[in-house]
Amino acid sequence: MTIRYAKMILTLMLAAFAALVAFNNMTDYGSNFAFVQHVLSMDTIFPGSTAMYRAITTPWLWHAAYGLIIVGEAMTAVLLACGALVLWRARQASGRQFNAAKRVAIIGFTAGLLVWFFGFMVIGGEWFLMWQSHQWNGQEAAFKFYMAMLGVLIFLNQPDADCD
Asked: What residue stretch is flagged as signal peptide (predicted)?
């Protein structure tokens, strides 16, 4: 049971993390909006970059992108919280049933990886060259987030046997 409880607690902890990130972005919209604006407009990357054609300088698109990020964070939080609840309800079940109960949490971790790996590392980091900005480079923070998600996802996916 210890491993099952650990899987539930870790899932719930990352649900709380994603919820706080979404909450902070909604209640202090301007702080991280500036981050999105600068990354998408590519105004702090290396001067003379030939990739500037990728820049988005339309304000409503900045808001749309930021909204998509917030929705992804909130969706991650809800799915992980629901996933932890489903795991809790299946904690006394057979190994087969507990393994099947992991589905919602797995979807939640996948949503988190879409936000922090695909969104921040692939799109922000490479497409918009966020790595070139000294002031608006969120790759280190995103790395911490998605590695935590990935680590727990791997742990969660370890098969569970029947309880003694």
From this structure: 1-18
